[in-house]
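Purpose: get a first structural picture of the assembly so the mutagenesis plan has something to point at.
Setup: two entries, given in the order below. No constraints added.
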Amino acid sequence: MRDLPVLDPGTPDHRSAARYLWWIVRLQKRTVIFGVVMGTVWMVAQALMPYAIGQAIGAGVADRDTTALAVWAGVLLGLGVVQAVAGIMRHRCAVFNWLSAAYRTVQLTVRQAGRLGATLPKRLATGEVVSIGTSDISHIGNAIDVTARGFGAVVAIVTVVVILLNASVPLGLVVVIGVPLLMAIVGLLIQPLHARQQAYREQSGKLTTRAADIVTGLRVLRGIGGESTFAGRYRTESQQVRAAGVRVASVESLLEATQILLPGIFVAVVTWLGARFAVEGKIDVSQLIAFYGYAVFLLFPLRTLTEVVQKLTRGHVAARRVVRVLSLRSELVDPTNPASAPNPQTSNLVDSESGVIIKPGRLTAISAANPEDAVAIADRLGRYSDSGARLDGVRLADLDRTTIRDLILVADNDARLFSGRLRDELTGRRTAENERIQAALYAANAEDILEALPDGLDAMVAERGREFSGGQQQRLRLARALMADHPVLVLVEPTSAVDAHTEARIAARIATARLGRTTVVCTTSPLVLDRTDHVIYVEAGRVVAEGTHRELLDSSPPYAATVTRGEDE
Amino acid sequence: MSARQMLPVASTAEVRRYARGLMRRHPREWSAALTLHGVAAVAGLAMPWLIGRLVQAIQDGTTTTTVDKVALAIVGFVLVQSVLVRFAKLASAKLGERMLAELREDFVDRTLAIPLSTVERAGTGDLLTRTSRDVDALSHSIRFAVPEILIAIVTLVFSAGALIVVGPLLALPCLLGVPVLWAGSRWYLKRAPQGYLRESAAYSDLTDGLAETVEAARTVEALGGQQLRIERTDTDISRSFAAERYTLYLRTIFFPLMEVGYLVPVVATLLIGGWYYSQGWANLFQVTAATLYVQQLIDPVDRLLSWLDELQVGQASMARLLGVSNVADDRQESRGRPNGERLEATDVRFSYVDGRDVLHGISLSMDPGERLAMVGPSGAGKSTLGRLLAGIHGPRTGSVTVGGAPLTELPLRELRQHVALVTQEHHVFLGTLRENVALARPEVSDAEIRTALEAVDAWQWAQQLPAGLDTELGSGNITLSPAQAQQLALARLVIADPHTLVLDEATSLIDPRAARHLERSLAAVLEGRTVIAIAHRLFSAHDADRVAVVEDGRITELGPHHELVAAGGAYAALWRSWHGDRQPLPSIMTSRS
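Result (structure tokens, whole complex):
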């Protein structure tokens, strides 16, 4: 078995869902073909076992022919072993095909998410993309897997039909007509079953959400009260789920009963016809026993065929969602002939739309009366939106985005902490010695967070860093941004969630840590503003005043009002 | 963070006791389901019997009328069996759904009774996993594994019985399969649950990683982390593949072993049956029926073995769900009842970890109706002190009392009437706005809710919601901004109306100017209430009656704002810097604490 994941998942054919599935099948055609062959051997071996049992009883036992008995028992054993070996080989192929289809889809989605970057959350609800991970990949895996078994099932059914037609045309016809008929009738019940299962899944999903809601808000409930209200509501919904479960069971049990009744009657008819032929001397006892065996066996490939239809349909729907994600394009177009990157150490960064000019090597603050203005400016300076922003006169739009990302880092509060080791979280792409990490944590006044972790830098950060408080997360994000060490760093409200003491420290330490490099802080906090070299005050999206914090406090009453937060002493 | 603790897990004995209790609660349903399955299994035994008879009859020479009769009998039994199966399945499903509902409701009740201090310290991560993954695993177990195993056992018992009835000697070859099946499944079951748990954990790591990459796409782009995410995904895939490979290895050994274990008895029955027949110890009916019964035994044995590991997984999940109620209660209720509303802390010391005190002898007395602002660097112990003052944790030494009664000796219900804590961590519950505000008193009138919302400056946006107070909030519905959520948390407190409130950064997410307005209008509503506000903005301190500066687990400065400013200490320096006075910060504020 080859090793997974593959190094390069390749370039998918995302013109349509069917083409995508076909593309995946082609990539793993060797295991798919091997799986089909093994699946067929496995099914046919099982199909032939009733024949061997029939011969063993009819020609061996009944005729008291020890040799024939031994031979047919041996054949049965042989078929059993072939069946077991082919079965496990088929299973191994199926698992491999399933996994490699699922893994490949994940790899492609991750790469596509990387390519789309900031565009992705704007174009698609994250839930939709996330469901690729939670359900779509397994449906795609199932679709690929079921093809091998489905093929085997068809071959097995054909084999049995040929044997029966050879023995007796009416018997063969009963099978040829009976099999599709059975499938159709069972199919009638599958639809309502799926509808109810779907309803059950939705209800029980809601119930899980409700429980998670209670758990997440447990502090509030235990602190303020309301436990009985929520216990009562959970109980009500739990009973609804129970009722939905019973509704599923009523169809399911009906389906189960039908799956005993119809095949049972089918078996009875085949046996009855066989027995009459036997009485008339057209066939012998061994054939009768075999007929019974065939009829019983046929139920198995039948179920497989029903499964094929379902799984292919679901796989197709899942592939459609994947294809939609894979065919998205980034909203910002990189230039075909990118300009060469200017030296950020000596260049002004200019946002013409607002009139903001960031001089190199300084700590500049952008203070906006409306915080959203500052966010919009930061987005333009970092080329997260199309604009005429320039670095050293070169339009950012004329540079490759990868170039810009290496030069300018916009660190905002929507940035996410990732799960994994704290050290990796902070160092990112590069490796760094502990002293540098310590220095960044110091600058972000986050040393206490590290000290409280028993495993220190090797501590595992939970998803979203949810085990840290809001203020701790903010300081860790800041430390990460400082570690990344970009020539230009744009910080959006980096101290909004920390207390005044911490804020004062961070302000002083950032100034030191970023000494000589271009740093922009979007903030209205006087504790931070006081530490900057230069403050740009923005109102209604335009620069209205510039100077140091102290100068502006004296010269610009609206600035003073913005940063002292309506102080009215 | 240092104080994270896991919730306990119940012992196997406790799980068994609970499971027995669950069964005993529904004796009639249990016996009905078992009887129906039993009778259905018996009806299912008719077919091989009749086929055996048919073969014997044909061998002996018979008429088509007999054949027709036997065929009709087969149809009759099939009909009876299918009707019985329908009702048996339904009965057991109803029973399963019922027990499942009881189990999960019980779990939520247990969760809602977890001591407050444990909730505060353990965090919700572990509990959240239990709520989702363990409840799901247990549902799967009860909805599928339990009935499948029961049916398998019932069918197995009756089929084996039928086989013995047909010919006790013909049943012997079956035993040949037992050692193989026994050894194989022991080997497998010892490894399988662990293997499958690892497999599903690795798989959910993979899908979680994908979700993270997608949700944080902008952050990934900003930090140039694409390659890292690709590597992380590939690592997750390798890990998942390794886990899958392991279980596949288990199945590669186990499945063929089982197949052989199933086949050997069939072949042996044929051979021995042939020998018996030739010796005249058995007739053709017996050999045929016995062979078919042996074949029919395969299905229940297979079901039994393939669901056993699921049952083990379900048992582990159940242990985690039951474990939730094994947390020792943190309140030692005494008869002492508060006399008055004065909140007083005397020489309080506290540690999360033995030997590492985070509060070093704090004393603080709050006049009823007084407003205190607590400021200080992060990690100084403000929040811990807040929790002690709210009666969530008890002090290691010293005391925290309200009206002379220790807080941790009050029953939770009573404690809430005296003091409540609101933290920065807000939560909007799934439910209407009204329900979200009225937590403490569900019967509260709309007018009171309106007053509460007005007090926190939330009435304006609340009115604009599509259905006003009836608007459904929470994830999947209308989402409130963090600032609005904080307003909501404060409105809850207004409804709960304790005489003492501890606000831990309760307005930190609200726009500074709006926060100040809110705090003032809230103060008007809370007139006469004692308020301890852990503040992160200095105007809150400025507006309070007294300011306490907490540093390194001690109160270093305490007094009214203007006195502290006049005293020229650390607080004064911070205030001046914030306020734009031309004096640099003293080193204490900028150096390492």
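The radius of gyration of chain A is 35 Å.
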